[in-house]
Amino acid sequence: MPTVKKVPLGKAIIWSKDDLKQLGSVNPKDVALAKLYWRRLAPRRYRNVLDTTTNGGRGPKTTIAGGAGAPATKQAAK
Amino acid sequence: MAQFNTLTPQYGWNKKAQRYYDLSSGTFVASKDIRAALDASIVAGKKEIDNLTQKLLKSQISLADWQTQMAHTIKLQHVAAASLSVGGWAQATPAVWGRAGAELKKQYAFLQRLALQIESGKQPLNGSLVVRASMYGEAQRSTYEQSRRAEMKTGGAVEERRELHPGKTCGDCHDQAVLGWQPIGTLKRIGDSQCRMNCNCTFSYRDAQGNIL
Questions:
Q1: Same structural domain for residues B117 and B185?
Q2: Minimal CA–CA distance to B85: which of B140, B136, B46?
Q3: Chain B contacts of A37, Cβ < 8 Å?
Q4: Do B65 and B163 sit in the same domain of this protein?
Q5: Residues 6+ apart with CB under 8 A from B114
Q6: How many whole angstroms separate alpha carbon B81 and alpha carbon B139?
Q7: Element holding B125 (H helix, E strand)
Q8: pTM for this entry
Q9: Chain A environment of B10 (Cβ under 8 Å)
């Protein structure tokens, strides 16, 4: 069995305030990577949930009843 | 070439109702289904974090690499959670990313503290690290709820109520839930209770007329 070289633990990275500010900012590249991440990891049923359309798509035919805790998952379209 | 799979539902977002709907049937998607999507993302995210932490435990990566890769993974998870809270990528405004960024900065501060504890030996390289690291995956829930809270407030919600769910509740969560309807933004955040990032609570909202949103 080949010997696996062990990586030394080393030191933690100390982030400055500026580093944290930069790390915490969300830029278009982060969003693009997050899209790929979601498509890779989300179960198929939910894979498209973030790719919603708001213009041009049909609106829901239903009225809202209940909201959270509503008895039915999907209300029948009338 | 993109493949269209008819088994994968396509969704729309109704801004007025602040709800997802199924494009094929035109019906609203229940909040619990969207939460299920978040939960599925959390499970997958925790697995990614677990894999990373196992590499650190096996000395396959350095502490600095672990910290960097953790920070990257956490960001992708929180960005996706924030997007889910507002109706998808197309609806996410700079304000949404700003809120997600504020949550991220907190998580990074926690991550740095954990990394320093690993370096000093205060946090042993064992299973307890795996458990602690996995909490960063759970933290998406807090980002989702905070972002949704802000959107609901913008959308006309004036009151909120803590909703308990089976499985994970603590004394703080219970105390918050018994308060019932309160002005929006006044109840404890998800993640600020004793159960911290394991909190599985949600908020319900209603408008000035008492309509549940």
A1: no
A2: B140
A3: 76-77, 80
A4: no
A5: B123, B132, B133
A6: 10
A7: none
A8: 0.83
A9: 48, 51, 53
Indicate whether B123 and B134 sit together in one domain: yes
CB contact under 8 A, A24 and B10: no
- Per-residue tokens: B58: 């096996």
ipTM attached to this prediction: 0.84
Q: How confident is the model at residue A32 (pLDDT cuts 50, 70, 90)?
A: very high
Nearest C-alpha of chain B: how many angstroms from A2?
Answer: 14
B134 is written with which tokens?
Answer: 């996995």
Of B27, B45, B101, the CB nearest to A24: B101
pLDDT at A28 over 90: yes
| Cα separation, B210 vs B146, whole angstroms | 21
Whether residue A62 and residue B28 make contact (CB cut-off 8 A), yes or no, is yes
More confident residue, B200 or A68: B200
Contact state of A15 with B108 under an 8 Å Cβ cutoff = yes
CB distance B92–A11 less than 8 Å?
no
B39 vs A49: CA distance, rounded Å: 14
In a domain, B135, yes or no: yes
Structural domains in chain B (count)? 2
Domain ranges of chain A: 26-50
In a domain, B98, yes or no: yes
Output the pLDDT for position B163: 87
A71 in the Ramachandran plot: left (φ > 0), alpha (ψ -120 to 50) or beta? alpha
Q: Containing domain of residue B170, as a range?
A: 157-213
